[in-house]
Amino acid sequence: MFLHIHPDNPNPRNVKAVVECLLDGGVIIYPTDTIYGIGCDIFQQKAIERVAQIKQQHVNKINLSFVCDSLSDLSQYTKSISTPLFRMLKEYLPGPYTFILPASKEVPKILQSKKSTIGLRIPDNKIATTIVHDLGHPILSASLPGEMVEEYTDPELIYENFKDIVDIVVNGGAGGMIPFTVVDCTKDPYEIIRQGAGEFEI
Questions:
Q1: CA-closest candidate to residue 51, choices 133, 148, 143
Q2: Handedness of CA 122, 125, 126, 127 (dihedral sign)
């Protein structure tokens, strides 16, 4: 299904269709504040396995992140956040960043890596955060497979390429070409794992 959702005023009926799809174990492609991502419900194991299959990687090898809609939502999935860390997250989020933090027990076992860390993200994108808000918990998100970044800016091209392997492609307008910045907050000092769209001061 190719579903248009307005980037500034997400239409509730279409958001509801996406949420129901996720709760049923569906896999979606949706816009963020950087590139389009592939996502599913963090509690749907078969959907997580489908994402891994689409990425042609083992679940434990994929760079996955939880897309949250607020800092209070994010804080459930990491161990206690210190005041300085909270201030830093508040300064940069929402925005084009994924922060690697220690995973809490709320993270489903299938997603708990040997390092016991999780990537957490709050994109500055109303479609993404509205879907997450209405879902009631984070979306598990990964980048689209392959190297054709140019094709991943156009929702219609994305639909043509992935319509047979995902359930919904959300058309939220043109996507970006630069991925988000990844910062490992389990290191002291923090370490930039990937420099992307967001500038980060260490």
A1: 143
A2: negative
Domains of the chain (ranges, CATH numbers)? 2-194 (3.90.870.10)
CA distance 64 to 111: 9
Query: How much is the pTM?
Result: 0.94
DSSP string, 94-154: SSSEEEEEEB-TTS-GGG--TT-EEEEE--S-HHHHHHHHHHTSPEEEEEPSSS-GGGGG-
pLDDT in tens, 24-82: 999 999 999 999 999 999 999 999 999 999 998 888 778 889 999 999 999 999 998 99
Closest residue by Cα to residue 121 from 102, 90, 94:
94
